[in-house]
Amino acid sequence: MKRGEGQNVPPVLRCLFEEHRHLAALIQLLIEKVSRPGKLGRGDLYLLRDVVGYLHDYPDEVHHPTENLLFERVVRRNPDMEVAAARLREDHAAISAETARLLELLDRLIEKHRGDIEQEVRSACLDFAGKQQAHMRFENSEVFPAAIESLSRSDWREIERHFAGADDPLFGRAVAGRHRLLYEYLLGPADRAEPAIAGIQLVGLERMMLTAESLEQGARSWWARVGELGDEVLLESRSTLSQAIHPDGLGSAVTLPARYSLFLARSFLDCGRDLGRIWMGTVVNAVKAFGTGDAAR
After folding, report:
1. CB neighbours (10 Å) of residue 40?
2. pTM value?
3. What is d(CA 131, CA 113) in angstroms, rounded to the nearest whole number?
4. How does 105-139 read in b/e, with b if 16+ C-beta sit within 10 Å?
5. Which residues have a Cβ under 8 Å from the Cβ of 146 and sit 6 or more positions away?
6. For the chain, which terminus, N or C, has the lower number of CB atoms within 10 Å?
7. What percentage of the chain's residues is helix, strand, coil (to nearest 5)?
8. CATH class of the 3-201 domain in this structure
9. Is the pLDDT higher at 131 or at 278?
10. Is the pLDDT of residue 94 over 80?
11. Are 159 and 12 spatial neighbours (Cβ–Cβ below 8 Å)?
12. In sequence order, which residues have a C-beta less than 8 Å from that of residue 143 and are 6 or more positions away?
């Protein structure tokens, strides 16, 4: 890829940038939770454990290995990036070790609350968050732009082959069971002190997606029927005009306007009935999809 093509970001790199935004949001949540005064409740601890668990699992299994492959390709094309790439690979190993240690600390604190362990958890979370933020900033500002400028199409295809098939268990197409509570928390309102809106947390994204799909299918059927009516009117209009120009055909100057008006009235009536059935079907399917989203998983 030539230097002038930097604005064309390859799909796999767009995914890595997007995952950085997801990770940054979770890290910010981590910071906010451990920075609040007062004792960490059990709900806070379970939420922190879910966040750290995700930060340990998916990045280690998919995100970081993909980046490491990207670093390898960048160094191959641009040896001057070797020091930066080595630093980031070391960061990945350190991040894995730190998140594993955080999980252990959180498990100990959940099992038995102790002030000294809570303080250790708070300090470890803040330290981890700062390092992770600096790590992603460096990748975003230094290594990713270098990859855009230096990697070839074959390099990107190789990286994409590694990345293909991997699905994010929290922000991907389907939410893994082990991340369900964290997912529901992120989906819900920021302030959970309002009982009236607590029910929003029970609405899963997959359920809403099924409902949206039903509405989309209904809209497509609606416009398809309207399009069919337009085609019918256009064809009949051409036929009527042709017969008017050639009165020796099927119609006559007297009967054609009446026949054409009758055709229009009947066509619009039939279309209206069809649209009504489509509308009712769309509502029923959307309600079913919303109500049975859990069963579809």
Report:
1. 19
2. 0.58
3. 27
4. bbeebeeeeeeebbebbbebbeebbeebeebbeeb
5. 74, 78, 81
6. C
7. 80, 0, 20
8. mainly alpha
9. 131
10. yes
11. yes
12. 70, 71, 74, 81, 84, 85, 88
Residue 191 to residue 273: CA distance in whole angstroms: 46
Tokens found for residue 10: 């390859």
* Summary mean pLDDT of the chain: 75
Tokens 């690979």 appear where?
A: 89
Letter for the amino acid at 215? Answer: L
Provide mean pLDDT across the span 89-113: 91
Q: How far, in Å, are 5, 73, 236, 264, 270 from residue 228 at the CA level?
A: 44, 53, 12, 13, 11
- Where does the pLDDT of residue 136 fall: very low under 50, low under 70, confident under 90, or very high at 90 and above? very high
Nearest alpha carbon to residue 188 among 203, 173, 174? 203
Domain boundaries, the chain: 3-201, 207-296
Angle at 187 between CA 289 and CA 181, to 5 degrees: 90
C-alpha distance from residue 17 to each of 21, 103, 133, 175, 222 (Å): 7, 26, 13, 20, 38
139 pLDDT band (50/70/90 cuts)? very high
User: Could you identify the residue written with the tokens 């209009």?
Assistant: 237
pLDDT digits (tens, 9 = 90+) for 180-239: 777 777 776 444 444 333 333 333 444 554 555 556 566 666 666 666 666 676 676 767
Residues 6+ apart with CB under 8 A from 31: 125, 126, 129
